[in-house]
């Protein structure tokens, strides 16, 4: 059931109030209702709400507390707490801020119930019809990403990830292709080598949508459905969350869903190398040297740095097929988390001015990204004596940056390229952001792409 409705005769007024807002509301309220609020001890704090009765014992309105600058998450706690029914937000905020609050309300209703169904809630928010389609698309795309990331690898291998992409292509009228088997081994050796140890064969997933004469845009996502670390096996604590190592793939599918559903004027291509980094007798080894689709050789310093290896072949294909702009997304390095934490993914780009514009837009949208430099002198860290590149490098420093420089090698110089090193996960529960899979940067990237290309 949709959490949004365009009209309702029985919608209850919903007020999102900070301290000053509550004072103004009390000044204008019915005296009995004002006395009810004052007697209740309600304080307009983030996450608190109060049902205000009418004279007949029914529900007159709902007051919800927030901090002064809250918008996106101002209403996110309500879908799981309000009585079933329809609600209408009463706020004189600018249109963009209203839409953000609605998005947060929609995300607040998310539940991953595939394995543990819960009671169905029937809490809906009234929104203008003109805003409904984009609102539902943005909320649905984030929930789609969350569902994919939350699904355990037992039920989401390379084939299942490909099937999800195929279903998306069918719904949106896109072309779909899976490259696997002997062709994958022959044409995409880096993807094949990383995934060959798993009983579930690796593949390259490819979607194409849009008019042929539209600007070519490519999205590339890391699809490591589970990362054991390979022969450089992770400790148990480091392996617990590794079902989320396909978070980059989930994100580019979510972004593609927005682009296709809202009709961005691009010739879109999506590339996902889908592999499991497993251990068996034919697993690739530290010190192996592999040849990539580009022809460059890579010395394997650490089999747990597999994401950049599989992305190399996908980035090469995106360039071969004429992409003028590439955005790749990947749960690539722990170094990014050490530097910026779980909520703030770094964005690397060749065009610093554009990257900073995306950063500024992302903070305005409350979907933050942080521009990090592609510092060229650190290329020396990933240049071994006996191969073109090392997948682990010679330094323990600047791990996220050197991973970005590794990817940069496989993107042709003329391409406008952006790399996001995402976490794709919430460590704990917060309103609208339950512990588990998370979509990061989708709305920010969509807003920027909409500015660049239009609908």
Give the CATH class of the largest domain.
Alpha Beta
The pLDDT mean sits at: 97
Number of helices, where a helix is a run of at least 4 consecutive DSSP H or I residues: 14
Low-confidence segments, given as residue ranges, are none
Distance between the termini: 28 Å
The whole-angstrom Rg is: 24 Å
Give a quick summary of the entry.
With 455 residues, the protein is of the alpha/beta class. The protein contains 14 helices and 20 strands. The strands form four sheets. Strands 7, 8, 9, 10, 11, 14, 15, 16 and 18 form a nine-stranded mixed beta sheet that branches.
If you had to describe this structure to a student in words, what would you say it looks like?
- The chain has 455 residues and is α/β, with parallel strands linked by helices.
- The protein has two domains: 4-127, 3-Layer(aba) Sandwich (Leucine Aminopeptidase, subunit E, domain 1); 138-453, Aminopeptidase, CATH 3.40.630.10.
- The chain is built from 14 helices and 20 strands.
- The strands form four sheets. Strands 7, 8, 9, 10, 11, 14, 15, 16 and 18 form a nine-stranded mixed β-sheet that branches. Strands 1-6-5-2-4-3 form a six-stranded mixed β-sheet, sandwiched between helices. Strands 12-13-17 form a three-stranded mixed β-sheet, with helices on one face.
- Helix 3 links the parallel strand 5 and strand 6 (123-126).
- Helix 7 runs antiparallel to helix 10 (307-320).
- It is elongated, with a radius of gyration of 24 Å.
- The two termini are 28 Å apart.
- The relative contact order is 0.12.
- Belongs to the peptidase M17 family.
- This is Leucyl aminopeptidase family protein.
- Keywords: Aminopeptidase, Hydrolase, Manganese, Protease.
- It comes from Wenzhouxiangella limi.
